[in-house]
Amino acid sequence: MSKLPNITTSIFTVMSKMAAEYNAINLSQGFPNFPVDERLTDILAKLTKENVHQYTPMAGYPPLMHQIAKLIQNSYNRTVHPETEILVTAGATQGIFTTILALVKTGDEVVILDPSYDSYESPVLLCNAKPVRIALNYDYTPNWETIEKACSSKTKMLIINNPHNPTGKILTSTDFAELEKILSKYPEILILSDEVYEYITFEEKHISAHTKDFLLDRCIMVSSFGKSFHITGWKIGYTIAPEYLMKEIKKVHQFLVFSVNSISQAAISQYLEVVDVKLLGKFYQEKRDYFQKLLQNSRFELKPCEGTYFQVASYATISDEDDVTFCKKLITDHGVAAIPISTFYSDHKDQKLIRFCFAKDDYTLESAAKKLSNI
């Protein structure tokens, strides 16, 4: 008997497989196709001949953990202890999975804001807990009144994703003030803050949970080197939590993966000494602006994108088909792969919206836009 009877193959896998089968331009799955920074690949090449091929300590490679602490200090003016508050993970998804498995118990409830990343719900179900899915407003802002009504003495955790995948929305100071009001009424609720696109924001700057004092003793922050440094296949991220929570998270981590790939940890540790993460926003804003310019004469209506490397678009003036069908035909008939937004909702609400990934080289964006503009 299945523990996850209603969980099927990820939509990202489905669309990427179809893209490969039909030789379509893949703007569905969120991975860049441009070269990695040569400074990082040079570091990696050099390290292959050094003694970094065995297990690292369970929580992470010590030099990398100190670099992470330095990164957080420089980015958010927050001091974290490398040995007790940091965990290097096999991608942010493993950090999310491990955190939920460690902290959520049978009968607990976890509030998830839709549209939501598909990896949030599965670990909740595996804990015999209840996912409580709450839809964001039409403009993808949180409806804090509805969120508060969904909270109760059973609520163990609220998951926030900022900047938000798939919509590119970022939380404001007002949002954090509303969150603080809710948490003051429910002192036992933990916050899992998925911030994997934290360095990829544009006109409005990212406000991290790291900067909010009221969250620091009850929040688990999840970050991704894979997203930040265009190395998604390395599957490396990190989790920050207060010591009393991190102790529990590490208990699960040590039996799930024990320790993360050693050479990638060593490489990123050295890379953090030379890279400037503050430049990422400008780099991706240029990508966003160029993709939007390429599509300005298409029939797609592009929605606001404040962060991430995803562009949501409405095809309502093009077709009445549901978004899954439209995305499949987009591959088979027009040679471009996208993601249907309905798959990020528990009720599969179809609003004629799809998501494109613009973390691609200019040639790919130009080729895709030419096809899309002819629809």
Q: Can you give keywords for this protein?
A:
single chain; 375 residues; alpha/beta; seven-stranded mixed beta sheet; four-stranded antiparallel beta sheet; 14 helices; 13 strands; 39% helix; 15% strand
Description:
It contains 14 helices and 13 strands. Helix 3 crosses helix 11 (262-271). It is globular, with a radius of gyration of 20 Å. Helix 8 (173-185) links the parallel strand 5 and strand 6. With 375 residues, the chain is of the alpha/beta class. Helices cover 39% and strands 15% of the residues. The protein starts with 10 loop residues before the first helix and ends with a helix. It has helices at 11-21, 38-47, 62-76, 82-85, 92-103, 121-126, 144-150, 173-185, 225-228, 243-256, 262-271, 280-294, 323-334, 362-373; strands at residues 25-26, 86-89, 109-114, 130-135, 155-161, 190-194, 219-224, 237-240, 301-302, 310-314, 336-337, 339-340, 353-357.
Can you summarize this structure?
The protein has 375 residues and is of the alpha/beta class.
Overall pLDDT, averaged? 96
Structural class call reads alpha/beta
Radius of gyration of CA atoms, rounded to a whole number? 20 Å
- The rounded distance between the terminal residues' Cα atoms is 45 Å
Tell me the series of helices and strands, N- to C-terminal: HEHHHEHEHEHEHEEHEHHHEEHEEEH
Major sheet size, sense and barrel closure? 7 strands, mixed
Beta strands, count: 13
DSSP helix fraction = 25-40%
Strand order of the largest sheet: 2-8-7-6-5-3-4
Content of β-strand: 5-15%
What's the shape?
globular
Uncertain runs are none
The number of helical segments is 14
